[in-house]
Amino acid sequence: MINKKGFLSLEKNVLELVLTIIGLLLILSAVVYGFNKITSNQILRNAQTSLDILESRANSLQEGEMVVARLPGLCKGEKECNWFIAGWNKEKKENPEKCLFDNCICVCQGTPDTPDSRKIACQFSNSCRFLEGISGVVINKDVFIREEVRGVEAKEGRETSNKKVPVEFPAIAFSSNLIEVEISKNNGVVTFTKK
Amino acid sequence: MENIKKRGAIEMEYIIVAIVLIIAFIGLTYVLIRANIQGLGPDVACKLSILAKATAPGLLVVDPKASIPIECVTKKICLGGKCKDNFDGEKDVVKVDLKNNPEKDLPVIEKTVADAFYNCWNDMGRGKLDLFGSSEDAKPRCIVCSRIALEKNLDFNITERINVNKYMKNHNPGDSKLNYLESMGLQSEKTLNFDSTGAVRFGRVDGSDRKTSEVAVVFMQVSAESGGKRTLEYTGVAALGAYALNKVGRSPAGLPLVGRSYARMVYIPLKKVVSNVAKSPITIAISIGLTANAEINAWADRILVAGYCGTYENTLIGGKGSEGCSLLQIVPYDKYSINSMCNIIEAEV
To answer: Measured between alpha carbons, how far is B9 from B126 in angstroms, rounded to an integer?
Structure first.
């Protein structure tokens, strides 16, 4: 009888402990999941703010004028920040759908390495804004850091080299802190250059 | 028979508790996904997220501290009401009317900057809360609490005379019986070599041109990696470290200290700084002359700094918090000034 009571008591304690731990873990994971959702929204909000600033400054530029736009970081210390600014002149095949009929500026997440990858990264409907009353958009090249895979190793599928090399693409890279973009207008063409 | 009944009753009890926990989990998840924490108002949301982040344990396999975002949004304040150059395309800009009369405008400008400084320091837990957790890279992380811009066409006699440091010594925030610095928990000016001539100055170049018309109130924090050999590669903490080392009677690599010219980008090992101050955490207000750099000198030759170095007070698990340094500084809002202080900018700008 005593043994049974002892067994019951032990069973109760163990069960209580297990349930408490499971409960705490469930609640903790819910909180973490919820806050993660909010974090990604925060980055998207900063991306939209950047786009608002670029659009507004470019549209209010007078001929021959130059302004500097300061844009917030869109990355939180990742090794490579995959947010960038890209722009398209209207009526080009390689443009994202939204930029087919108008010049536009975009803030996109992805890789800017090829025209196709830039197009894919900027396909989301909220990524781009039209620039009004201009004849063209130029995005001066910015430096992106890429890992170089040496020839023989690459052929054999072995990626042993992690030498980092600077590569230029017609896009402007965001970082984890402030970036400055010079926006100028000459002969109707708006040019974006990273300072 | 009674035992069987008791066991049945106990099992039933656990099943009910389990069901309640599962319902609570589902409910909480739903609420968190659907919740618009910003709907509480930006200030409340900011303070709640700071508290949540600071009190979250940071040593588990899944790091909740790292996952909780800081829901603070940079306040944008336009002194004079016309700041298109600064805030074009940005939302929620607060306009503060000025009369273009030095006697009336000076206290308004100084109060605006002082309040931004004071509120940021208090909202961020006076630098004593571990907001970002320790990381391997020991990168300085920042929150830009406010951006304050001055209308372009304002009388230069006004901008020349702005002296926030002095204002904070001679005025009290709200209904407080203490002045701003005392209310912020900062030590007295005498102890701190607080420079009474210090002023926050808006864009002053050759006495006429205003190259920079915008300042930012930036809170920075960097945590020490326990046992690590990382060095801090950055101005603010270097300045704070220099002060801390000076306090304990050591020369920080022959650098000039508080109240004098101070070179940027100085390397001071964090461990060294923290180990010197950890036994008696310090909270300080200092005025650092940045005359070594012409670019900075063009904007401001005295900048107010509040700082804390030592053990953080917030960790719920494990008792003693981690160590690090926090710094609050008013700097020009440009890439050079912000990025030399901040490796990562958190929150919404």
So the answer is: 52
- Which pLDDT does position B291 carry in this prediction? 29
Estimate the crossing angle of helix B2-34 against helix A2-59, to 10 degrees. Answer: 10
User: A72 vs B345: CB contact, 8 Å cut-off?
Assistant: yes
CA distance A154 to chain B (A): 30
Q: Do A35 and B10 touch (CB under 8 A)?
A: no
Cβ contact B325:B307 at 8 Å: yes
B249 CA to chain A: closest CA distance, Å? Answer: 35
Residue A195's alpha-carbon distances to A69, A174, B115, in angstroms, are: 10, 12, 32
pLDDT of residue B51: 82
Query: Is the full-model pTM beyond 0.80?
Result: no
Q: Which residues of B102-121 are buried (b: 16+ CB within 10 A; e: fewer)?
A: beebbebbbbbbbbbbbbbb
What's the pLDDT score for residue B214? 84
Contacts of B50 in chain A (CB under 8 A): none
Token look-up 């060294």 returns B272
Taking a C-beta distance cutoff of 8 angstroms, is the pair B256, B227 a contact?
A: no
Contacts of B338 in chain A (CB under 8 A): 177-178
Exposed/middle/buried for B86, CB within 10 Å: 0-12, 13-18, 19+? buried
Mean pLDDT value across chain A: 82
Question: Which of B68, B343, B349 is closest, CB to CB, to A49?
Answer: B349
Q: How far apart are CA A94 and CA A115, in angstroms?
A: 7
- Determine contact, residues B21/A23, Cβ cutoff 8 Å: yes
Please report the number of interchain residue pairs, chain A to chain B, with beta-carbon separation below 8 angstroms: 128
Q: Are A14 and B10 in contact (CB under 8 A)?
A: no
User: In A, residues 22-41, which contact B (CB 8 Å cutoff)?
Assistant: 22-23, 26-39
Q: What is the pLDDT of residues A161-172, one digit of tens each?
A: 567 788 888 999
Question: Which residue of chain A is at minimal alpha-carbon distance from B73?
Answer: A42
Query: How does pLDDT run across B242-262, given as a tens digit for each residue?
Result: 433 333 333 333 232 222 222
The interface pTM score, or ipTM, of the predicted complex is: 0.76
DSSP assignment string, B130-155: -SS---TT---EEEEEEEEEE-TT--
Rounded CA-CA distance B131/B312 in Å is: 9
Question: Under an 8 A CB cutoff, do A30 and B29 touch?
Answer: yes
